[in-house]
Specification:
The complex is a heterotrimer of chains A (216), B (302) and C (671). Chain A is mainly alpha-helical. Chain A contains 8 helices and no strands. Chain C is mainly alpha-helical and 671 residues long. Chain C has a two-stranded antiparallel sheet. Chain C is globular and about 100 Å long. Classes of the chains: A mainly alpha (216), B mainly alpha (302), C mainly alpha (671).
C-alpha cells in the first residue's frame, strides 16, 4: 500500500510540473483531468478500507473532474477559438525553475508541520502543498482566463489531497460542498470567459485592469 | 384634606362663573380707558346668542374643524376634574395629575391648531404657527414650576401640593412662581403683552385668527372654553396664595373664586398699561418666565 | 390571573410556536421567490401568507411567554468555532418579540396592497428579504450565543439593505443603501469587539457565562452603547436613519423604524442585564445622549419637507426618549432608589412598544399618501383628509399618540418617565439633577413634537391640495387600510389600558430594576399608574362624545350653510396662498438656525408690487456634514495613498494572497 500511494503522489507532482511547463491549452485540460481521476483513487489508497462513502466520493469526484470539467472547458475553448497560451507573464522555463524551488520548500514545510494524526505517506503533505501552489501559480502567472479556471481546479485537487491527512475519511458533506463550489465556479467562470470574449474580443485577463477605478 | 363633597362644587362653579372673567377683564380695561364698556354679564349674553344660531362652515373644512372646539372644551372639563381650588381637593386627584393637566392643555391646543389649518387660510396658518411656537417655550416653564412646587411640598399630586402650600411655604418661592405663572397665564390665554384679543388686523392676531372661521355653536364652545382656560390657569395661580388659614371648604372655595376674579382684574390692568411685545420678543418673555420658575426650583434645593 | 412560575410544558409549547414561526418565515420566503417565476399571485400568497401566519403564531407565543413568565434556554451544537445554536425565551426577549411580530404581520398585510401596482416584477424578491428580515430580527432577540447573535445581526442588516435599495428606479435609494451599509458595519465592528472581550474570561460565547473583565464594565458599556446605538439611531450615530428609512418601501420603513432600531435598544438592555452593575457615570452618559437625540432629532424633523424623512428624524427623537427612560432607570439602580429605577425602565420599555405601534402607523399612513399622490413632498400635498378619510383619521391618531397626548399610548409611557423624574426631584443629590434634566428635555421635546406634527398632519391632510397630484388622490385599498385601523385602535386601547399592560410587563422591569418585592409591594409598578388617571381619561372621552351629541342636537333643524373660507375680501383666493410647511415651522427653525444650519436659496420680493419671490430651505444633517463627511474624506485621502496596491489585475491580487499566506505559514512553523 505504501508503494501504491507513493506512486500516485509522484504522479501528482509530475503532472503539476507538466502543467507549469505546457502552453497548449487542450493538453493542460487533459493533464488536469488525469490528475483528478487519479486523486479519485486516493481515499482508498490512503486508508486501505473501502467504505461506501469513500467509494462514492472517489467515484464521484473522478467523474466530475475527469469528464464534466474537461467537457465544459473544451466547450468554452471551442466557442472562443483559442488554442494556445501566448506570452505568459512568467515564461515557461522560469516557471519550471520556480516550481522546483517551491517543491523543495514544500518538502521543508511538510517536515515541520505538526500533524494531529499519522500521515499515510511522507509524500502526502508536500505533494498536496505543491499541487495547491501550482494551481495558484497558474492563476497568477498566465494571461488567458481559461488557464485561470484550470488553476482553480488544480488548487482544489491540492486541497483534496491535503484533506486526506487531516481526517480519517473526509466528511462527506464537506467534500461534497467543496466539489459543488468548484463546479459552480467552473460553470460561472466558463460563462464569464465566454462573455468577456464577446465583450472584449479576447480573454486576456491582464487587460481587465481597464475596468479598474480611475485614480481620483 | 382629601376628596369631599365640596370637591365637586369646583367644576360646577367654574362652568358657571367662568364667562364672567372676560367680562371683568373688559370692564377693567374700559375703566382705564375712560369708557363704560360692555356689561359684566356680556359673556353670558354672547353664549346665549351663539348657542341659538344656525351653523356655518367653510367648504374646505372636514370633521377636524368641527371637532376642534369640542376637544378643547372637553380637555378643559377633564382638567377641572383634577384642578384644586383654594386648597380644596379636586374631585379626581391622583399622583401625576399635573402632567395630565399640562398635556390636556396641549391636546386642546393641538386640535385648535388642526382646526385652524383645516380652513386652508393663510391667516389661520400664521396664527397656528405662532401658537405652536409659543407652546414650545411655555411648556418647559410650566413643568419646571410644577416641579418646584412638588419638591417644596414633597407630594406628587396637585391637590396635596396646593393643600401643602396653603398650610405653609416660603414667600420668595410664592413670589417667583407667582410671577412666572402669571406670565404663563397671559401667554396661554392670549392676553397682552403676548397677543391682543381686540385687534382687527388678521396679520397681528394669534389666537383670535385661529378661530376666525368658526361660528354659532362652535364659536360658543370656543368662547366658553377660553373662559374656562382663564379659570383653570387662574386656579393654578390662585393656589399660590395662602388661603389655608380660612375655615371650612366652602369659604375656601369662595376665596379661591375671589382670587381668580382678582387675577382677572389684575390682567385687565396689565392689558391697559402695557403694550404688546414684539412678536420676536415673545419667546424671550416666555424663557424669562421659565427662568423665574427655575429660580423657584433652585430655592427648594436649599 | 397570571401564572407566577414557568411550567416547563407550557414553556416548551410557547418556544415551539416561536421556532415554528421562524421556520415558516424562512420557508415561505424562499418559496415565494421560487413561485414568483411562474405565478405572481402565488408568490404573494406564499410570501404574505407565510409572513402573516408566522407573525400571528409568533405573537401568540411571545404574549403567552410574557404572561406565563417563561424563562428557558434551548441549545443545539453548531459547527462554528465558539458558536452554539443557543436560543432563549425570557421576559425580556418575549417583550421585544411582541412589537416585532405585531408590526411585521401588519406590514406584510399592508405590503400586499402596496405592491399591487408594481406589475411585471417577481414579488418573491420582496417577500424573500422581508420574511428573512423578520426571522433574523426574531433570532437576534432570542439568541443566547455571541456568534449566533452576530450572525443573525448581519443577516438582519443584509436583508434590510436589499429592501432599502428595492426601488431600483430611484437613484437616491442606492446611495441611501450604501450609507446604511457602512454605518451599520461600523457598529457591528464595535459589537464584535464587545463580544470578544465579554467572552474572553470564560472562553465561551454563551451569554450565561459572559462577564466583564475587572474594571472594564464601564468601558464595555460604552462600547456596547456605541455599537448598538448605531443600530438604534442615537445621536450622533443616527446619520443613516434619515437616508435609509425614506428610501425603503413604506411597509419596510414601518418595520425598520418600528422594530429594527429597537433591536439596538434590546442589545443595550441585554448588555445591562449581562453586566449587572455599571458605574454611575454610565447613567449620565445615557441621559445626555438621550436628551441630545431627542431634542436634535425633533429639531431636524421640524426642518424637513419630505414626509418620510420627517418621520425618520422623529424615530431618532423617540429613541432619545427611550434612552432618557433607561438612563433614569440606571440612575435609580445606582442611587439605590428602586421606585425610580422601576419607573424609568418601565417608561422606557413601554415606549419601545408604543413607538413601534404609532411609528408603524405613521409610516403606513405616509406610504398610503405617497402611494395615492406619487409624492412625499409635503409642500405639494394638502387636502388629503377629504380624499382619504380613513388614512387621515389613522394618521391623526398616530400624530396625537406620538406627541404624547392623552388618551393615547404615548401619554402613558411619557407619564411614567415624568413620574420617575419628579420622584427623583423630590429626592436629593445627583438623582434630582437627573430628574431636572429629564423634565426639561422631555418638555422641550414634547412642545417641538407637537409643533412638528401639527405641521405634518395639518399641511398634508387639511386645507386645499397644493398640486394636481394631491387633488387626484384616492383612498387606498382595504389591505392597506386594515393594518392602519388596527394600529390606531391599539394606540387608543393601550392608552386606556396601560395599567394592565404594565402589569404584564412586570417581570421585564424586575429583571432590570431589581427584585419587585423591594418596590413597595410585589410587582408594584402598575400601582404607579393609578386607576383614577384612566377614570379621568374615560371622562375626557365620554365628555367629548356628549358634547358632540349636544352639538348635533343643537344644530339639528337649523339652517346650516356652507361658504368659502374667510379671505379678507380677496377676490381670487388660491390654494397656493395657504401656509406652507416651511413657513409654518419657520419661527422655530429660525430660532434654532445655529444648530440646524439650513441652506437657504431665496429671492426676496422686490418693489412695491412684487411679481415673484422664492424661498427654498434645505437642511442636511449637521452630524453628517460636520462630523462624518470630513472624517471619511480625511480617511479616504490617507488611504488613497495606498491606491498603488490596487493594480486592477487578478494576477497581483492572487499573488498578494499567496505571499501573505506563505509568510504566515513560515512564521507559524519556524517562529
Amino acid at each position: 500500500m505504501q508503494n501504491g500511494i507513493g506512486i500516485l503522489l509522484i504522479f501528482l507532482i509530475l503532472t503539476d510540473l507538466l502543467l507549469l511547463g505546457s502552453s497548449r491549452l487542450r493538453n493542460a485540460i487533459r493533464i488536469a483531468a488525469a490528475q483528478g481521476v487519479a486523486l479519485g483513487l486516493l481515499p482508498w489508497l490512503a486508508h486501505g478500507h473501502l467504505t461506501g462513502a469513500a467509494l462514492l466520493l472517489g467515484a464521484g469526484s473522478a467523474a466530475l473532474k475527469g469528464v464534466v470539467f474537461p467537457a465544459l472547458l473544451n466547450r468554452a475553448l471551442r466557442e472562443i477559438h483559442v488554442r494556445r497560451e501566448i506570452e505568459p507573464l512568467i515564461g515557461y522555463i522560469p516557471s519550471l525553475l520556480i516550481g522546483t524551488g517551491v517543491l523543495a520548500a514544500a518538502f521543508a514545510f511538510g517536515a515541520r508541520l505538526p500533524l494531529p494524526w499519522e500521515s499515510p505517506s511522507p509524500l502526502l503533505v508536500p505533494a498536496g502543498l505543491f499541487t495547491l501552489w501550482t494551481g495558484l501559480f497558474l492563476i497568477m502567472a498566465r494571461r488567458k482566463a481559461i488557464t485561470q479556471v484550470l488553476g482553480y481546479i488544480v488548487m482544489e485537487n491540492g486541497i483534496f489531497a491535503l484533506g486526506m491527512v487531516v481526517v480519517e475519511a473526509m466528511p462527506l458533506l464537506v467534500e461534497l460542498g467543496v466539489l459543488l463550489d468548484v463546479f459552480v465556479a467552473v460553470f460561472v467562470m466558463g460563462l464569464l470567459v465566454f462573455h468577456i470574449n464577446r465583450e472584449f474580443d479576447h480573454i486576456d485577463a491582464d487587460q481587465l485592469d481597464a475596468l479598474k477605478e480611475g485614480v481620483p | 384634606m382629601g376628596v369631599s363633597a365640596a370637591s365637586w362644587i369646583h367644576p360646577v362653579l367654574a362652568l358657571a362663573l367662568s364667562p364672567l372673567l372676560p367680562g371683568v377683564i373688559n370692564r377693567v380695561k374700559a375703566f382705564f380707558a375712560g369708557r363704560n364698556g360692555p356689561p359684566l354679564l356680556q359673556g353670558y349674553h354672547d353664549l346665549w346668542k351663539l348657542f341659538r344660531k344656525g351653523g356655518i362652515a367653510s367648504r374646505t373644512t372636514t370633521w377636524v374643524f368641527r371637532a376642534g372646539p369640542l376637544v378643547n372644551f372637553a380637555c378643559l372639563l377633564a382638567a377641572l376634574a383634577v384642578m384644586p381650588l383654594g386648597a380644596v381637593s379636586a374631585p379626581l386627584p391622583f399622583d401625576g395629575d399635573w402632567l395630565l393637566m399640562a398635556y390636556l392643555l396641549g391636546l386642546g391646543r393641538f386640535f385648535t391648531v388642526a382646526a385652524a389649518l383645516d380652513t386652508g387660510s393663510s391667516f389661520e396658518g400664521m396664527g397656528a404657527s405662532r401658537e405652536v411656537q409659543f407652546a414650545v417655550f411655555a411648556e418647559p416653564a410650566l413643568l419646571i414650576g410644577l416641579a418646584a412646587l412638588a419638591r417644596e411640598t414633597q407630594s406628587l399630586s396637585l391637590s396635596p401640593i396646593y393643600a401643602g402650600l396653603a398650610a405653609g411655604g416660603e414667600l420668595p418661592l410664592r413670589i417667583l412662581l407667582g410671577a412666572g405663572f402669571f406670565i404663563l397665564y397671559l401667554a396661554e390665554n392670549c392676553r397682552i403683552p403676548v397677543d391682543d384679543p381686540n385687534t382687527h388686523l388678521e396679520l397681528t392676531m394669534i389666537h383670535e385668527v385661529m378661530v376666525l372661521d368658526h361660528g354659532a355653536v362652535d364659536l360658543g364652545f370656543i368662547q366658553w372654553g377660553a373662559a374656562l382656560k382663564l379659570w383653570v390657569l387662574g386656579a393654578l395661580w390662585a393656589g399660590l396664595l395662602p388661603l389655608g388659614a380660612l375655615p371650612g371648604p366652602l369659604v375656601r372655595l369662595a376665596a379661591g373664586a375671589g382670587a381668580i376674579l382678582a387675577l382677572a382684574i389684575l390682567t385687565g390692568m396689565v392689558e391697559s398699561v402695557t403694550a404688546r411685545v414684539r412678536l420676536l420678543r415673545v419667546p424671550q418673555l416666555l424663557v424669562g418666565a421659565g427662568v423665574l420658575c427655575a429660580l423657584g426650583l433652585l430655592l427648594t434645593f436649599r | 390571573m397570571f401564572v407566577h412560575y414557568a411550567m416547563p410544558l407550557e414553556g416548551i409549547y410557547l418556544f415551539g410556536l416561536l421556532a415554528g414561526a421562524l421556520a415558516l418565515l424562512a420557508v415561505s420566503g424562499v418559496g415565494s421567490l421560487l413561485a414568483g417565476r411562474w405565478s405572481e399571485r402565488w408568490a404573494v400568497v406564499l410570501g404574505a401568507g407565510g409572513a402573516g401566519v408566522a407573525c400571528g403564531a409568533g405573537l401568540a407565543g411571545a404574549i403567552g411567554a410574557l404572561l406565563c413568565r417563561v424563562d428557558l434556554t434551548v441549545a443545539r451544537p453548531w459547527r462554528m468555532p465558539y458558536g452554539e445554536f443557543r436560543l432563549g425565551l425570557d421576559p425580556l426577549s418575549a417583550f421585544f418579540l411582541i412589537p416585532l411580530f405585531l408590526l411585521s404581520g401588519l406590514a406584510a398585510l399592508y405590503a400586499i396592497g402596496y405592491f399591487r401596482p408594481w406589475k411585471g416584477r417577481n414579488p418573491g424578491r420582496f417577500w424573500l428579504f422581508f420574511n428573512g428580515l423578520v426571522a433574523s430580527m426574531a433570532l437576534v432577540v432570542a439568541a443566547r450565543n455571541g456568534v449566533l447573535f452576530l450572525a443573525a445581526w448581519e443577516t438582519m442588516t443584509i436583508a434590510s439593505f436589499f429592501l432599502v435599495i428595492f426601488d431600483e428606479a430611484d437613484s437616491r435609494s442606492a446611495h441611501a443603501g450604501w450609507i446604511y451599509l457602512v454605518a451599520t458595519h461600523l457598529g457591528t465592528a464595535l459589537l464584535i469587539g464587545l463580544f470578544v472581550l465579554l467572552g474572553s474570561g470564560a472562553g465561551s460565547q454563551d451569554f450565561g457565562t459572559y462577564a466583564a473583565p475587572a474594571g472594564m464594565a464601564g468601558g464595555l458599556f460604552v462600547l456596547g452603547l456605541a455599537g448598538f446605538g448605531t443600530k438604534a439611531g442615537l445621536y450622533p450615530l443616527h446619520v443613516w436613519l434619515p437616508e435609509a428609512h425614506p428610501a425603503a418601501p413604506s411597509p419596510v420603513s414601518a418595520v425598520m423604524s418600528g422594530v429594527m432600531i429597537k433591536t439596538g435598544i434590546y442589545g443595550i438592555v441585554r448588555l445591562l442585564v449581562i453586566l449587572g452593575t455599571v458605574p454611575g457615570w454610565c447613567a449620565w452618559l445615557v441621559l445626555g445622549i438621550g436628551a441630545a437625540s431627542g431634542i436634535l432629532g425633533v429639531l431636524f424633523a421640524l426642518a424637513q419637507h419630505d414626509l418620510k424623512r420627517l418621520l425618520a428624524y422623529h424615530s431618532v427623537e423617540n429613541i432619545g426618549i427611550i434612552a432618557l427612560g433607561i438612563g433614569l432607570g440606571m440612575l435609580g439602580v445606582h442611587a439605590g432608589m428602586p421606585v425610580l429605577a422601576a419607573l424609568g425602565f418601565a417608561g422606557g420599555l413601554l415606549h419601545v412598544l408604543n413607538h413601534a405601534i404609532f411609528k408603524g402607523l405613521l409610516f403606513l399612513g405616509a406610504g398610503a399618501v405617497a402611494h395615492a399622490t406619487g409624492t412625499r413632498d409635503i409642500e405639494r400635498l394638502g387636502g388629503a383628509m377629504k380624499r382619504m378619510p380613513w388614512t387621515g383619521a389613522a394618521f391623526l391618531v398616530g400624530s396625537a399618540a406620538i406627541c404624547g397626548l392623552p388618551p393615547f399610548n404615548g401619554f402613558a409611557s411619557e407619564f411614567l418617565i415624568y413620574m420617575g423624574a419628579f420622584k427623583a426631584i423630590l429626592g436629593s443629590g445627583s438623582a434630582a439633577l437627573g430628574g431636572v434634566t429629564v423634565v426639561t428635555a422631555l418638555a422641550l421635546i414634547g412642545g417641538l413634537a407637537a409643533a412638528c406634527f401639527a405641521k405634518a398632519f395639518g399641511i398634508v391632510f387639511l386645507g386645499e391640495p397644493r398640486s394636481a397630484a394631491a387633488a387626484a388622490a384616492r383612498e387606498v385599498g382595504g389591505s392597506m387600510r386594515a393594518p392602519m385601523a388596527v394600529l390606531a385602535a391599539l394606540c387608543l386601547a393601550i392608552g386606556l389600558l396601560a395599567g394592565t399592560v404594565l402589569r404584564a410587563m412586570d417581570p421585564v422591569v424586575a429583571m432590570l430594576a431589581g427584585n419587585p418585592s423591594t418596590v413597595a409591594a410585589p410587582g408594584a409598578v402598575w400601582v404607579l399608574m393609578p386607576a383614577t388617571l384612566f377614570g379621568v381619561l374615560a371622562l375626557l372621552l365620554g365628555g367629548l362624545l356628549l358634547l358632540a351629541a349636544l352639538r348635533r342636537r343643537l344644530l339639528a333643524g337649523r339652517a346650516n350653510r356652507e361658504t368659502v373660507t374667510w379671505d379678507c375680501g380677496y377676490a381670487a383666493p388660491a390654494a397656493s396662498m395657504q401656509y406652507t410647511a416651511t413657513g409654518f415651522a419657520q419661527p422655530l427653525t429660525q430660532a434654532a438656525e445655529g444648530i440646524l444650519r439650513p441652506r437657504v436659496e431665496s429671492q426676496l420680493p422686490q418693489g412695491v408690487y412684487p411679481a415673484s419671490g422664492a424661498y427654498h430651505a434645505d437642511t442636511p444633517d449637521v452630524a453628517r456634514r460636520m462630523l462624518f463627511d470630513p472624517l471619511f474624506r480625511a480617511a479616504a485621502e490617507r488611504l488613497g495613498q495606498l491606491r498603488w496596491l490596487q493594480q486592477g489585475r487578478v494576477h497581483w491580487y492572487v499573488f498578494y494572497l499567496v505571499a501573505v499566506l506563505a509568510l504566515l505559514l513560515g512564521w507559524a512553523l519556524w517562529a
